[in-house]
Every structure is written in structure tokens, then in C-alpha cells.
Amino acid sequence: MPTTTVPHRLYLREDEIPTAWYNLRADMPEQPDPMLTPDGQIVQEEMLYPIFAKALAHQEMDATDRWIDIPGEVLDIYKVYRPSPLCRAYDLEKALDTPARIYYKFEGNNTSGSHKLNSAVAQAYYAKAEGLTGLSTETGAGQWGTALAEAAQYFGLPLIVYMVKVSYEQKPFRRAVMETFDAKVFASPSDTTEVGRRILAADPNNSGSLGTAISEAIEVAVSTPGYRYVLGSVLNQVLLHQSIIGLESKIALEQLGEYPDIIVGCAGGGSNLGGLIAPFMQDKLTGKADPRILAVEPASCPSLTRGRYAYDFADAGHMTPLAKMYTLGSGFKPSANHAGGLRYHGMSPILSKLYHDGRMEARSYEQTAVFDAAKKFAKVETILPAPESAHAIKGAIDEALACKETGEEKVILFGLTGTGYFDLAAYDQYNNHTMTDYIPTDEDLEASLSLLPQIG
Amino acid sequence: MPTTTVPHRLYLREDEIPTAWYNLRADMPEQPDPMLTPDGQIVQEEMLYPIFAKALAHQEMDATDRWIDIPGEVLDIYKVYRPSPLCRAYDLEKALDTPARIYYKFEGNNTSGSHKLNSAVAQAYYAKAEGLTGLSTETGAGQWGTALAEAAQYFGLPLIVYMVKVSYEQKPFRRAVMETFDAKVFASPSDTTEVGRRILAADPNNSGSLGTAISEAIEVAVSTPGYRYVLGSVLNQVLLHQSIIGLESKIALEQLGEYPDIIVGCAGGGSNLGGLIAPFMQDKLTGKADPRILAVEPASCPSLTRGRYAYDFADAGHMTPLAKMYTLGSGFKPSANHAGGLRYHGMSPILSKLYHDGRMEARSYEQTAVFDAAKKFAKVETILPAPESAHAIKGAIDEALACKETGEEKVILFGLTGTGYFDLAAYDQYNNHTMTDYIPTDEDLEASLSLLPQIG
Fold it and tell me: In chain B, positions 64-93, which contact chain A (CB-CB < 8 Å)?
């Protein structure tokens, strides 16, 4: 039981915000397998310098430091929108009639609308500190692009965003936010890159893909002096920066005299899940505690629950090194009727290793069930969740209902990564009962997995 | 100077949230003139019962109680999304190079995205407590409709929203949010009311107006057993509920050892401004302090700065009683190119009286200047403001720049009422340099003012 009265929302004081990120790899008894080049050589830090800022390449590769100081200028921006609240879901508990105590860490209260800003600020800072003069990235639904646009302009860095053409056309407001923060946004494929022009020459009506957008962004970064490429998930450096979510959560829970029995996070590339669970996984790895950790993914893009633990490219265009991870194959495309994010074919190598080693569980849900949970949550907790976040809500609700069956007063913590303001076309589908579910067949998965690189 | 280190965002503890609203009328030496019927009779509380819940009709009319307890169930919901943060605009101060200390009270961190929820929750609660079975309202841009949909479903009250047809068609996502909270949303004029059918018969392509939507909502409330009508601004009861904004602000500033020299709020119907200034105006009226109070309105809809202090209808359809207020005439329509809210022809009778008595100042800005300020603010404070809120930002920036000229270290407090997630079409116009300004001519104003009712 909590040792003090639990407020609906607990905000740490500004001086309680952690001043160092936690590097999960420092406590992993076995490290994730190294990145490889397509011909099987182990990637060295220096080989990443043309793509990433040096400090970020170092964070990507170096696994030894347990704590990494958050630079003062990053901390100053964190203080503008953090700490994020740790919320006690009293009304949800009541609606579910569960003896469980449900907590969620809400990362949506900033203009980018999600946790993505935590890493965007860090990546933009390091690029600026090294004297770089611009950044490039890709964005699908637009959450990452928005966060990075905000961070880049804060540091005075020009930003070029390749936005998947179908999203560019369907989500003009996402583009408008990025442009308000001075980003240059191109529909991808575009005529601004070699790869884009090649694709358009073959197919002028190509509607784009994340893979193509990544390829365009990397081409620009590598070919423009002073530019580097940045990515909002999957990478080790991103999980490092996102550890702020879990660290704040743990401090807040400690103040309440609580420790989670179950931690639930949605999982696309892993940026939120990896950050949320970081300090709790540390407890698990060091034997201090043994909470259950549950990754929730969409049934339409089930990398952990139905993918293969294998070396694969991080992009569809095969411009990146190979990473050992749970993957559906880099050519896998979730059905177009899949409304939310979490559309990535792979999973963070750190999380993949932890899952492979039995340190966490995974579960998948179909999207109408996820929107059921989203609506149930919105109605009592007055926050409209992003569809991605709603996967975690669904997982937490099911765990709380299981407690109702058993009568156990478990403590459930889940990550509410962002708001659904830009996902109302999907909510509209759901409200109108025109939303359908999609689960890839075994044959679909076999087809894309059969194209995995033969290596590692 | 502050007596303690000022955090970027100060959240009160949950147990510091005020438990009573403050009724400004209790300290006004002269009361606003009474509401009148169209034939000149003073409106009595009982005459409002068919339209408003009784407790709300009482709050509307009764001017004697200084403090009114916030019902426990309302307070419980306030605790889900309040306290809202008092923010110190360090980065804006730095960008402006001003010696002023700028604070803002940010009300946008809830699903409705604005301060409107503060009154929506109260109005829905009282309706439920009296055993009413449904609510009706109108919405233009959708902020109020969203907040009320959220509040009504929380208390299990069906809600019918008449949304101005042009907004209904241009802002399908606003509708989708309301529907997610189970509201029934009709494009107004609709075929669900007498007045709607009459208008459609005469003009099948009528694109609607706030006046028509109000008329439809009132017709439904009056003709449906158990239903009442609710309104999100202008009314005395709304200012009462919104006093929570100012009360929290004052407590937070006191903890910092600060008192504002200037308080700036945007002014449409007056719900935010009246709530923000309430306890500071009390100090002014009772001689405890003498802060400047500045209302900022759009140059395209300048009720305080260019309107007349006179009796007028609250709606274009002339179904409401008459109120003494600053008005542009109930037939006044701001130009269609006016992007933000604040489109109301009149102003809260309480604020009108205070302004008339010289207790506050008013200023108007054109919209491109307001969006300049919005963008400047967004880039350093990482919050994308609603266009309405940006009027207050512009006012605060100009006051801070004046301090730069004089070297005065003034304390400026402004109200940031909400976020601009649903206003990105306007931001897009601004970014593309297709936004234009509009100021009504003297002839325009004379024409609508000449139609004021000849009374009072």
C-alpha cells in the first residue's frame, strides 16, 4: 500500500528531475550482438561518424558507462516541459472495479505531443555542440518529425524532413506544425535526392514508404557538408535518452512508497518501452526486484510475438548496417488499414536481446480492441490517447481485470506516450464502425522473412 | 524580486487547489446592470429555470456570496487535470532581452485543450445533481463543444451539440473528438429544429452562424423534457467557475514571493480573462493592490475598443434576454478571413462594467501580428498556442518590450488559455504568407450598432 496520500497527478519538483540518463547495457549480463556491415564485418564507432554526430555515435556503440550526465542545455529544455506527471488512474480503477492500483506516466503534455521530444532535444543538442550545420530525418505519422522540428529550431539548426507521401497528403496539419518550427518538409519520394528521382522516374505516382524516406534522409545527410542524420527510435542512444521517463517514474513511485508489480509499454521501435522500463529492468538484472515487464504491440505488425530474432537491415532501402533484432523482415509492410503508429518491421536490439533472454513478455492486440480501450480510458481519465499509447492502455486494463478475478492488489505502471489529436481520422473510423482488423497470415510473414540477409 | 528559486513550471500540490470559487461581483462597488426582457422588465432568477439548471440560474443572478464552495465531485475532476502549471517564461524573456519577469498560466494540458473544461465540468455536474437528463449547446470552432462533451459523458448526460455548419465541414476532427465522448453533433442549421428547418427552407445552402446554432440549441433545451442549455462564456456563472485560474495563479505567485504588475488576458466573451483576473481585481477593488489589467482582443472583432456599452441580445437569433455590455451589435459578423476564435459580438457584462468604470484597459491587434507573436512564443517555450491565447502573448510581449525601453523589472502575468492543435489550417495560412488582416470600417460598425434594441 502507498505510504502517503496519492494525488491524481504527481509532478516532481524541478530540482528532482534526474541529471543523468541510465544506460541499460551497463547492467546487462550479455550484450546485444554487434552491428554488422552487409558483408559481415563488425561496425566500429568511427564508421558511423558520416551519419551520426560523434557524441551520438559514441552513445550508440559504447556500452560501459552506467550513467551519462545530461548536458546542462538539454536539462534546461527538459525543465520547460518536464517533469511529466505520474498519474494515478483512480477513475479507470473505479470503472474497472479492480483492486489493482494503476499508475501511468503521461508524456503527451508538450507541443510535439509525445515522448519523442526527450531524444530529439538531446540529438539536436549534440549536433549543435559539434558545430554541425543541419539535420535530416524521415517521419511517417509525424510525431518524431514534429518533436525534432521543435528541438532543431531551438538550437538554430536547419532541418530537412522526408515525410512519407501518403502521410504528407493525408496529414497536412502535421506538416504545418513542422513548418511552424521552420523545418523544410518534403513529400517522399521527392525530386531532391538521387534515390527519390530514381523511384519517381520508374513510378511517378509512388506514394512512398518509411524505407524510401529513410533512404532520402540519409542521402541528404551524407551528401550535404555539415549535415547528419537522426532517428527517433530503435537505436541504443534513443533508449538512453528516453530513460528519463522511467527514472522520473521510479522517483515519483518511491515518494509514494510504491513499486510496480507490472510495467506495461507499447512497442514499435522500442523508444518508449525501453525508456520506461530502464530503471526497473536494472532492478531485475541486478536482483533487487522482479517486476513483470510487458511489451504490447499491434497484431498487424507483431515483431516480438511473431517475428524472428535475426540480423536485418534497419530500413527497407538497405542503406543501414545490420542489427540483430526481432524482425518481420525489412520488406514487411503492415496493412494500410492499420490506423496507428508502431508500424516498424523491427525492434530495438537492446529490447530484442532482453526479450530473447526471457527478461520480458510480449503480447499483441488487434486495433479495434485497442480503440475500445482508448475510448474507455479517455472517458474517465479525460486524456485522448494516441493509438500507439492505447496499446499499453489495453495491456494495463487486461492486467487490472485479471487482478479483479484474483483479488490481487497489484501495482500496475504503464506508459502513456502521447495524445491522439492528430489521429482523429482513425478515431472517426472507430466511431463510425468502419475500422477493421488485420492480422498478417503465416504465408505473409514467411514471404518477408525469407528475404532476410543470410548473415550472422 | 522572487523570494525563492523560480522553476520553469510550478504545479501546486493537489491539496493546494482552491476549494471555493471567487465571485467577483461580491466586491464590485457597483453591480452590472440587470438582465432585461425584450420589453424592458428585469429578469428574475425563476425566469431562467426553463433554460438553465436551477443552481446555475442562481449563480447567474445572485451577486452576494463572495466564495462559493466547489462541489466535491467537481473538485475530484479538477484533480484529474488540475492544477494547471504556472510557467516562468525564461526563454521568452531571454529572446526579448527584457528585464521583465514573465509568467503565464497554461490551461491547455487537458483533452479539451483549453480552460473551457473548468466551467463545462461545473455546469454538467449541477445539471446531473438536479436530475436533468440531457444538455444542449452550440459550438463554433469547437473548443467549448469538446470540453462539454468530455464533462457531459463523465456524468453520463447525453449532449446535443449544434456546430456551425462551415466549421462542421472544415473541422471534422473537432467533431470526431466530440463523438468520441459520445456527443451527438449536428451541423447547424439542421433539420432537427423548427428554426433550423425554417432557415433551410429559405436557403438550403445556408452555412450557419453562431447565432443560428444558439437558437437551435435553446429550442432543443426548452422543448425536450429534462434538457437544459449551457454556454461556455459571457455568463456570470462561467466567470465564477473560471476564477479557479486566477486563484491558482495567485497562490503560486505568492509561493514565489511575486505579485504581478500587469495581468494580460485575451478577451472574446470574457471567460478566460474574467477568471484569470478575478482575485487580482479583488485586490484592486478592495484597495490592497493596484495591478494594471489588460484585455486583448482582435482588431477584426473589437467589442471593448470600438463597441458601445449598451443593452443587446446575447445571440443573433434574439432568443435570449438583453444584457448591458460592450457590443458590436448582435448582427455583427467578423470577416471570414479572421482565423482564430474571439468572434463574439459582445463581452461579459461583469467585465464590461469593470472596463466602463475604468478598472481595466483594452487593446486590439491584427491577426498577422498575433501569429507573429504565437510563432515567436512557440519556438522558445515549446508550446503551440491557440490563436485566441496568442492575443495575450502579443500583449505580454509588447509590455515586456516596453520594460526593455524603460529598464523596469516588471512582473507580467498572462493567460495561455489553450493549444493550437486544431488551428493548424490558420498556422498554415500564416506560414504560407496567405493570411491577411481585416479591420471593420466605421461604417460597418455603425450599421450593426444602429440595429441595437432601443431599450435600457
Answer: 77, 79-81, 90-91
